[in-house]
Specification:
The protein has 204 residues and is α+β, with helices and mostly antiparallel strands. It contains 6 helices and 5 strands; from the N terminus they run H-H-H-E-H-E-E-H-E-E-H.
Length: 204
């Protein structure tokens, strides 16, 4: 019995049109997978950034943030308000301990981010509280210690914003009222990859 063989006409260049479509589809899928990986946080695990290991560790407030913090203390003092900086630079270990608060114990949850995920870990954020005339430290958003009919807390926030700080109370989720930060346009993702703002930056 003769061997029955049905031939499929080849396209241009002798490539089977069906095979050509399969190759194009495979190439498109590979390109799409590449885009997903490039834009994924998992990229750092797949393609580690060797330059991060050579960066000096952050262990203090950024010089501009430190200078603005001191200016904030002075400006609020002129307005009759005494503030206390309760936190500045925070190590990743300290951040992890803080993250566990309210999760591994009965205390109130104060942060939703782990070590390396906070601007405190890069020296770009501070937290503040108010100090009353009697020396008490409070976190009362309605307190009017200078008796001008305005919330001392919001007066501090307004002064801080005029200096270039962003306020955690403006966040849409998990509002952090004591939190002030200067990110200089850098995201946490960029900071984790080793990006760092220069020591001298023009701010308001």
């Amino acid at each position: 019995m003769p061997d029955l063989h049905v031939s499929v006409p080849a396209g241009r260049g002798g490539i089977n049109p069906m095979r050509r479509r399969q190759w194009l589809l495979a190439a498109m899928l590979l390109s799409l997978a590449g885009l997903v990986v490039i834009n994924s946080p998992a990229r750092e695990r797949i393609w580690p950034q060797p330059e991060i290991d050579n960066l000096p560790p952050v262990n203090a407030l950024h010089p501009v943030v430190a200078a603005k913090m001191n200016a904030l203390i002075q400006q609020t003092k002129k307005a009759g308000i005494t503030i206390l900086i309760t936190d500045g630079f925070r190590s990743n270990l300290e951040q992890d301990v803080l993250y566990e608060q309210g999760r591994s114990n009965e205390k109130q949850v104060v942060t939703n981010v782990r070590g390396g995920e906070s601007f405190h870990n890069y020296g770009l954020a501070i937290d503040f509280a108010l100090r009353t005339s009697k020396g008490n430290v409070i976190w009362d958003l309605k307190y009017d210690g200078n008796r001008n009919g305005k919330s001392d807390w919001m007066e501090v926030v307004a002064i801080a914003k005029s200096m270039g700080f962003a306020w955690g109370g403006d966040w849409k989720s998990f509002k952090d009222y004591p939190h002030l930060q200067m990110d200089f346009g850098y995201s946490i993702r960029e900071l984790k990859r080793g990006k760092r703002p220069p020591d001298t930056i023009k701010t308001p």
